[in-house]
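Morning!

As promised:
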Amino acid sequence: MHIDQGVEDLLRDLAPQVLGALVRKFGHFDAAEDAVQEALLAAATQWPEEGVPENPKGWLIRVGYRRMTDQLRSEQSRREREDALAARAPRDAFLTPPPDATGGSDDTLILLFLCCHPSLTASSQIALTLRAVGGLTTEEIAKAFLVPDSTMGQRISRAKQRIASSGVPFRMPPAEERDERLDAVLHVLYLIFNEGYTATSGAALDRVELSSEAIRLTRVVHQLLPNDTEVAGLLALMLLINARREARTGPDGELIPLAEQDRGLWDQQAIAEGAKLVEDAMSRGDLGPYQLQAAIAALHDEAASHDETDWRQILALYGVLAQVSDNPMVTLNRAVAAAMVHGPEAGLRLLEQLDEDSRVVKHHRLAAVRAHLYEMAGDTEAAIEHYRQAARRTTSVPEQRYLEGKAARL
Amino acid sequence: MRYMLLVKTPPSAWEGWEGPVDGFERTIEFMGKLNAELTETGELIDAAGLADPTVGTTVRKRDDRVVIIDGPSPDGADVIGGYWVLDCDSFDRASEIAARVVAFDGVNSPDVIEVRPIMDANSGQEM
């Protein structure tokens, strides 16, 4: 079925709001989702012919509401509890939501908080977010993560059951939990982005593009929380990284490192938007890791070449980042920046502290960065040894090819 | 990330196998429960036990010729008794599942499991 792009975008924006409204009303997450799917299907078949209704959200809620009451009523009658339903669900409540109702966008946010609930594993949070907020089908999500449909279906239905059984109410988390819960949401969006961005091949034709989806969802959160500087920072980071997308792989899916990318292929519009976002966010003074990473990405994106990059500034930003987040990957990147500013020995010295860090000591990226710095220092033998070690340790075929190629060319 | 859990057994473990013995149903029950749980968590992609190695063949190259011999490799190396393919959040999680299987003390239940990440052909981070 061909649906007008405008209608499709509209439906995807409205879907989580409609779902939110139904969950808020009835509680039953699972049944509400089915009802939303049916409402969306009805819209997708009727709107292109009959035109988009004046209040599309109200239309969808109405259809979903009807579907839901039908379903619940048949269940209830089975349990002979019709009275309870009638008392709980006053019929007019959702029949004519005012067009200027403000609840809708908050519902999207509440739904996100729910999907990224701490009682779920990361993979469940991701799957449920894409399903319930992103409106992707189970098949699309399964394909994007290269797992069988049945596996993904199980993951999603279990996540829904967990939420149902945990009895989390459908409302904003209390103020004292908000920051932490928002962190979880941003982390899930970042993981979705990363999953899409690191894909090197992949039949873009039939695979949902996860990085674009993550950007779309983060944009929604940014619109809902325009004053949150970390949300802005994450959106900026995604835009600034994704801007390099066309340049990061070669024709056969081979990885091209930042230093060798054709900067003419970088998306200047995305860079401008990301840079402005992070600049505005940072000027408000509430620094966080996403803003810092975005600022670093902006410095890379705005440099005319690898050598002309403002490495001093990048090194300084990594220094700040190291203070706000205890992450060995930060040290790795910081070592590269230190090498560009003070020479490879300075970078190698920084890496020494990671030899005691169990999170990273056997990680291929530590060996890869070390190899790179030895190469810079002219110690070819050590460089080859570490490139080979990194190649053996990675679990990614494109990375392995790249690292073996580096070792072979030295 | 995907992991393969490989059940390793010495060839001697298969010798003298006379079909299910007392207590084996407890092992079957344990595996059934575990797999149901892994299905429910959305981690199980595939799992199976393999037939007796004497039913299979070993195909190998000898002096640039392909030769086929009945049964497992005659060098006495461990044979694979079964496997799981899992999609887990972390290596630790995959290892934890393997540890549960090995910890189970049942008739013909695995004593050695090798946990190996499955190479990802379609993604990678730029260096």
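Chain B has a mean pLDDT of 91.

Hope this helps with the figure draft.
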